Amino acid sequence: MIKNAKLSQTDMRYILLITLFAISIQVNGQTSIGSGNWEDDVNWTGGTAPATNIDNLTINIAAGSPITRNGALRFNTNSNGSITANDDFTITGNLTWSANSNNASIVSNGIFIVGGDLVLENNAGSNINIDIGSGGVLIVQGDLTVANSALNGIAVTSGGTLIVGGDFDLGSGSNIVNNGSMYGGSTSGSASITGAGGGVGDLADLLADDPTLCGLTSTCAVALPVTLLTFEAFRVEDGVEVSWATATEENNEYFTIERSIDGRLFERIATIEGAGNSNSELHYTHFDPITADFNGFVYYRLTQTDYDGTSETFDIVAVRMEIVEVDPSVYPNPSMTASAINLKGIAEYSAWRIFSINGELVKQGELSDGPEISTWGVPPGSYLLEVQEHSQAIEQFVIIVR
To answer: Does residue 21 fall inside a structural domain?
Structure first.
């Protein structure tokens, strides 16, 4: 046995070179610690944002710290590398993964959205794996492209979802196990699919299965339950006729008509049966026997309700029931104190303006605290008062005396 052996300087240099080489190929990792943009240093451990052309890096989007990359990302892995989304992660451009190792992986346990294409490249017989956890989602808005048999496998856990808006390339020798859900605009590749979730559904299936995720996919059109062409209300003898027309209806159980005299508080006045499913133009009418006691505008609102209870409310329409006459008066007149103009029959929140006889705006406001307009600060003289009630402008000359 040799004790206390000393290493030569040459031996030391070899040890140092080996140590430095080992350090150079280790995989670095960064974790998101804030919510916001990829480029913001404060959102990452170490206080420095990762590059956008990345070598041998493990990225972790931590729960509670969603990240958005505005642009493309490229990963180059000569050693182990991965990207794991445990919260929302959005890349607005392409994601390109070039692998020279057997341990490159893309993992989604949150909602991971690639706004462009997902391109998988294999440069040295290495492999890339895609894993979708329960409740995880990976959405590729463009194509999933596999070059040089780069895709080793896809594993979609029960409750997980993989969506490709464009062409879904399955590769040729990939091991694809789908126990969740997979959808694609089209499919290519010869790899077989096993698992309880079956094969790749189309985007129409996605719309039926999960409209919310369909709405996140740019190429998946969310069909509205009712396509409304018109919704109108007209004053007729002894009331108001409310009418509307639809171009299409899907699972439409009924319509609800509501009425309001102030545009804010509505009451239900009628329920009209819907057509269920229809691709033909349909017309509906309802007569509301409202009397002229309603002064000013009356408002109507239309709501459509599906068989499952979901509903959609359309824009409000208004009908003027009576020509409003304004009787502004100035009191006291004359007065040495502040005067007020009293407006009778004008709806609350109507806008008003006072102009000089030369057309210059002197004062303006809104009737929010009652029917009176303070003329404090307006010099004595003749003025034009304009009141804008809904779509009607009413003008009146007034005289202010101090």
So the answer is: no
